[in-house]
Write a structure and sequence with these properties.
mainly alpha, 3-stranded antiparallel sheet, globular
Length: about 400
Amino acid sequence: MPDVIDDAWLADLLQHRAFLLTEAETAAELATTLVAHGLELDADGSVTRTLLEALDGTWERGWQPADVAHAARRKATAGSVPLAVALIAEHARRTSAVERAPDTWVGQLRELGALEARDGSVVTTWQRAERRSPVEAWRIALQLLGMLRSTARIELLVPPPSQWGAARRRTPAPGGAAGEDRALRVIRGLLAKAEATEFAEEAETLTAKAQELMTRHAVDAAVLQGDRPAGDVETRRVHVADPYIRAKVQLLGAVAEANDVRLVWYQGLGIATIIGGRADLDAVELLFTSLLLQVAQGLAAAERTAGPSSSPRAFRRAFVLGYAHRIGERLQDARRRATAAAAAEREMDLLPVLRSRREAVDSAVAQLFPKLRTSRSRASVDSGGWFAGRSAAERADVGPRRSPLS
C-alpha cells in the first residue's frame, strides 16, 4: 500500500482491483488506512457511483435484487444489507423500475423495501442513518463493492435493466390468479393450524391435507390446460442460508419433487432455482420456509433428548438430512392419495395429462440449463442425527411464514 493515497490510486482500486476487497481482513486494513489518510467516505459521490456501476454489472450477469441482498448478507457482512438495499432502491429510481421492470423484479423490490423514495447520496445517507464510524463505513462499502465486482455469471431468468422497454402501465394478473390465490389461502390456513397445534397427529394430518390440496390444484390446472402447450412454466430463486446448506437443499428438493417442481442448485452461492407452474412454486416456497422453522425446533428438542454429542455439527447435519428424507416420503404419500382421488372423481386417466406438464417443465430446464449435471453427496452421516431427524419429521408442524430478505 503506498504512503500517499491520492484520488487516482483510490479510483484505480475501486474500478479495477475491487476483487481484492472480498477478504474481510483486506477490506478492514484498507478502511483503517483510508481514514488515517483523511479520506472521507463518498465526499464527492464517487463511491456511490462506483457501487451503482458495479450493481449494473451484477444485473447483466443474471442476478436479481433478492439475490444481491442474499449475497451481501452471506459474502460481505450482515451490516452491508441496508447499504445494498439502499443502492438497489436508488438504481430502481434512476431506471424507473416500477414502470419498466418485469413483475418479478418489482415484486422483489417491494419485499426488500426498495420502492421508497431515497436520497441520491446513497452512501453518505446510509452511513448517517446506520450511525457507522468512518472505519466501519469504509470497510462495509469496500466489502460490498468487492462482492458486487466478483459475482459469478448465472442464468438470466428475467431481463436485466439494459433490456427493459419503455415505461408502461401495469396490468392485473391473468384471470387464473384469483383461483390460485384462493387455493393458496386455504393451504396457508391448513399450515397455520398445523403449526399452532400441540398434537403431533393433528399436525401430520393437516400437513398431509395441505399437500393433497397442492396436488389437487396442480391436477385441476393440468386438466384445464389439456393438450395446449403449457405456457405457465416459471422460474424462481430460493435463497438458502448457513449452516448446513446442502442438507437444507435436500429438504427443498424433497418438497419440490412432491410438487412436480425441478430444482437447480448453485453450489457456493446459497441459491437454488426452482422451475414449475406458478401455483406449484408458491406452494413449494410456503412449505419449505415453514419446514425450515420446524426443523430448527425439532433439532433443539432432539439435542436436549440425545444429550451431548461427540460431533454436534455432524449430528445436526444428519438430523436435517433425515428430516428431509422422511418429509419427502410423507409428501409423496399425500400426493399419491390426492392424484388417485382426483382420477376417480373425474373417471379419467390423469397420467398423460400430468406427464405432459412434467415434460413442459423438463423442457424449460433443458433450455435454461443445457449443461446441467446431477450430483449426490457422498459424505458420511451421523446415524443418531439421521434417525432423530426422521422421527422429528413425523411430528412436523408446518407454518406459512416467509423469511425476511433484509
